[in-house]
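Annex B. Sample input.
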Amino acid sequence: MKKTLLVVGGASAAIHLLARLAERARTNRRVNFENIVVIDKAVHPEGGSPHSDPSPSLRVNMRTELHDIPGQLPFREFLSRYGGAEADPPLRADLGRYGAHVKAEAVRQLTEAGVEVTFRREEVTRLDGNLVDGFVAGCCTGRKIRGSAAILASGNPPPQLPRNVQVELSGAWRVSCYNGSTEFARWIRPHEPVVVVGTGPSGIDIARHLIEVERHEAPIYLISRTGKLSAVQLASPAPPELEEELRDVLAYLRRGRITRLDLLRQCFSPVVCAFDPDFDLAALAITPPDAVADLAVKIEKAARNEPRWRQAVDAFGLLAPEIWRALDEYAKLEFLKDRSLVRAYYTNRHAMQPATARWVLEAMKAGQVRVGSVGDGVIRINDRGVTGSLTLLPGGPVDIRAGHLVVATGPQYELSKSSNPLIRQLLDEGWAKAYQIGDQEIGGFLTQGLELAGMPGVYAMGALVRGEDYAVHSFPALRRHARIIADALSR
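Annex B, continued. Sample output.
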């Protein structure tokens, strides 16, 4: 019987996996499967949501080169060859076209190597079996698809509402979630103020679409607990020698388990401070009193490749998954409980492309976008609208009334709250477990080498492995996951 690999989910994670397997096949390395069946209920004509929305307002957030898929045409070269390079930064739809191109190339290369790739438009609602007898994917139509191994690449549901957002049932229609599609704007009226929960890349996506495409007239409030915008990308990425130094420190730490966060700081801080004497870890958590002035300074400095510690943060971010794995359970729990440290990490790991930062600055100067902190306050939503108190930066405390709220805080990481029927089945029937540290669920399945604990032969990708990988962020994470899984499947 031919060996079949089941891939549940057909968007970006599946594309990365197919590309990695195609690279192995093209270089005469083992693939171990004659058939690959990709199963997804959605149609992803341009590489998968959130990269298929055609809106010209949605742009790539990370450095363009970070979207390269190994073994395939680089993203920038694709833009140059097939159009789209004139956009600064590139359109998200162009990234979708790039994904579709890579997908087609990967399928062609696998086919030439004797591996048949099939796509089925189905929703997988359950998975049963084991590594010895094989796995059976049960679809909502009643179809059963058998395989020798399975990959869960279906992603997570939309974000949940933050705890400080209270919705009365009758006012639920005033709330929408942003998942990379412009569907969030369907019920938003152009004359009503809008509150966006999230001051990172997704919040900026929302504001840009409302202003540029929907011609929104009223103010758009971007809010978060701290009110901090993303950093601005420097002119140059981190130099290789800095990453090598940090890797040497990590290798030293790996000889034992990292049991305390202060030990981690003691080891890494000297390297970072030697690279940039002005680096101050405590300063990362400070919210600027004036978001407009702060962003203007950051744009000016980024053009000069300053501050240099930004490069150190970028290099550190590349190692974050490996550092996370080196922490013992106590140190991980200590990190998660240190909310200032967690917020400092998450608000500084994202960095806007310079052109996006300039757009945000002009929108703030024009009063179209206002940035604020909600702190521990409460936002209430009912039929009368969205009300609450914000601290505007600058401007101080104000009471606001808006017509709509958009949640842009990322996917729902806690699997125990997932509405995905396959995830629910795996957890409820004991095939898989959610990743927990102490009594805290941090997201994703309990995995080892991205393989589900208790279900050998089944692997997960993307946010579904956040517990093991922690720093799961877009294409760099998928690239890493695809490599790990492809290598494991080919043994």
